[in-house]
Each structure stands twice: as C-alpha cells, then as structure tokens.
Amino acid sequence: MQPIFTTQIIKFKGAQKSAVDDILVREIKLEIYINGKRFGALMATPTDQEALATGYLISENLIASPEDIESIELSGDALSVWVKAKINEKRLEQFDEEKVIISGCGRSSTANIDPEAMAARSIKADVKFHKDEILRQMGQFYTQCELYEMTGCVHTAKLFVSGEQFHIGEDIAQHNTIDKAVGKAILAGSQLQNSFLMVSGRLSSEMVAKAVMHGIPVLVSRTAPTSLGVVIARKFNLTLCGFARGENINVYSGAERIYE
C-alpha cells in the first residue's frame, strides 16, 4: 500500500483558477493483534507498520524489551500487525480492547503514563552532545523526510544514533513518529542509550514519556514543551531541548548533557 495518493483539486493562484493533481498522505486504521487476540488500533500512515507496533508496545510498557518479541508480521493487506511476545498482562488489563487511538493528539488515548514503569527507566546515561551537532542534525531534519516533502501533511521524528546513522519516522500522528523511529532502531539492533531524538512538534507529556520509556537521554524539538512535559523530563532526568533553530537551543532540563 502506497502512503500517498493523487487526487484532482481546484487551485486558485491569484486571479487564475485551474484543475491540478495534488498529492495527499494516506490515512489507515492499523489493527494490532497480540498473541492472536485483537489489542486495538492506531490511526496511522501506512509506512513502517511493524516498527510502529514495536515502538508503541514497548513505550506503553506492554512489552518490556525487544528480547520478549518472538515474531512480528504485517498482514497481506498491510492493515494489521500480528505480534507474538511475552506481554505485561497487568498493563494489558488497563487498556480497553475496542479503543482506537486517533490521530488528533490532543484527544489521543495513547497518553497512558505509567509512573512506576517510568521510575524504573529514569535516564542514567552520562552521554554528552555538542550543541552544534544537535543543531546540524536539526538543520538537515526536514530534507530527510520524504513524505513531508511530498505532502506537507505529516509529523516527523528523527533518532540520531551515531555518526551518520539515524532512523526517520513519519506519520499523521505525532506520537506515532516516535514509535516508528524508535521501533526501526530496535528492529535494526541499534543502541538507544547514546542517541538523541528530534521531533517536529510540541514536546507534550506523552512525547516526553515515550523518550523516557525507551531510555533515550535527549529529546529535541524546533518548538516548545508543555509545562507537564518539563516536569516529567526533570523528574526522570531526561535532557529536554526546545526551539532548536539556527544557532539557538532552549534547554529545559538535563543541561549537563549539552556542551559547547
């Protein structure tokens, strides 16, 4: 399934009116099955579906580690992901099986923050990053995001691992981009404790919680954090950076990991 499709629209440009082809991003309902039973669904863009499921299930503490995944398969129609894994049954009971996690992040049910699980994963990494390297990677960010370039209609995330190794996630839902980027890194065997994560949108509580749950020490955005995002980052020792543009970065927590 292609993540885009073309449709004809009427375009007004100044005094001119014309019929033109326009590229739109595709939106699907992606079903997730765990050990043969339907868990729920994500409204998503049909790319990197296995990575999305992997990142999501680990960030929500349904799966403790990649080693607990026996297999993960995408259905032939690309509309469902089937996961066989050791599951946190207590956590699973907290989820309503029929709930759909929608793409409108403000009403999303994905913000299920588990303080006990997060406390166990409080960031301990002593890695440091030069501010110029973070800004360089942020400057290249959008040029590496193919769907954004084509449609302008997706959020993006970039997980910088080392050197020129990175993983990109693109989706209509902002939280899905993190799950995709991190899920791709996990499936590739990349180590997350020395990485930093860049996102295109706001640094809300659920975005910060996902970074903590994955043990990623630094989270960066071109825009601002919310107050709760900052509280969570400080509580769990995550380095949180906003307004990373040009030569500037605002560091809201964990400033010891950024040097110049």
UniProtKB/TrEMBL annotation:
GO terms for cellular component: cytoplasm. The keyword Zinc-finger does not apply. The keyword Cytoplasm applies. It is found in: Cytoplasm. Gene3D superfamilies: 3.10.20.10, Cytidine Deaminase, domain 2. GO terms for biological process: Mo-molybdopterin cofactor biosynthetic process. It comes from the Bacteria. Its main location: cytoplasm. One of its GO terms (molecular function) is sulfurtransferase activity. The active site is at 105 (cysteine persulfide intermediate). Transmembrane segments: none annotated. Keywords: Cytoplasm, Molybdenum cofactor biosynthesis. Pfam families: FdhD-NarQ. InterPro entries: Cytidine_deaminase-like (IPR016193), FdhD (IPR003786). PANTHER family: FORMATE DEHYDROGENASE, SULFUR CARRIER PROTEIN FDHD. Required for formate dehydrogenase (FDH) activity. Acts as a sulfur carrier protein that transfers sulfur from IscS to the molybdenum cofactor prior to its insertion into FDH. Belongs to the FdhD family. This is Sulfur carrier protein FdhD. The lineage of its organism: Bacteria, Pseudomonadati, Campylobacterota, Epsilonproteobacteria, Campylobacterales. The gene is fdhD.
